[in-house]
Amino acid sequence: QVQLVESGGGLVQAGGSLRLTCAASGLTASSYAMGWFRQAPGKEREFGAGIRSDTTYYVDSVKGRFTISRDNGKNTVYLQMSSLRPEDTAVYYCAAVLRGSDPSDPSNYAYWGQGTQVTVSS
User: Fold this and answer.
1) Three-state SS string across the chain, please?
2) Residue 57 — very low, low, confident or very high, per pLDDT cuts 50/70/90?
3) What is the mean pLDDT of residues 34-55?
4) Which of 11, 15, 102, 119 lies at a C-alpha separation of 20 to 30 Å from 84?
5) Does the pLDDT at position 28 exceed 90?
6) Cα separations in angstroms, 18 against 33, 65, 88, 104
7) Contact 15/4 with Cβ under 8 angstroms?
């Protein structure tokens, strides 16, 4: 049974940093593409960052501020977020196992975590 458990969310002031963690079980995270998505109230789930083999992908709005990485020994994927803005406020979800070619399409992922809330105050 595959499980993805996110942690690390919280309340932070604008300009601050947070590191989100996605702990995977039931699969070897290093063998699959994984992604971070976010969903703000009243908005659709949107792509934030992805990693496939050694290639990383970012939505333009987070480039230079967010970094996705893996720790294969811990079967974990991280999202380091810096220079946070109020518009980054959302529930952040980890996704695993890309079934299609587009890592930014949420419908292409087989597994999802429960999400962790990130709130950035101005």
Assistant:
1) CCEEEEECCEEEECCCCEEEEEEEECCCHHHCCEEEEEECCCCCCEEEEEEECCEEEECHHHCCCEEEEEEHHHCEEEEEECCCCHHHCEEEEEEEEECCCCCCCHHHEEEECCCEEEEEEC
2) very high
3) 94
4) 102
5) no
6) 22, 11, 11, 22
7) no
Q: Which two tokens stand for residue 71?
A: 């720790």
CB 4 within 8 A of CB 24: yes
Nearest of 18, 61, 57, 17 to residue 34 by alpha carbon: 57
Q: What percent of the chain has pLDDT over 70?
A: 100
pLDDT tens profile 73-109: 999 999 999 999 999 999 999 999 888 788 899 999 9
Show the tokens assigned to 13. Answer: 């002031």
CB 110 within 8 A of CB 97: yes
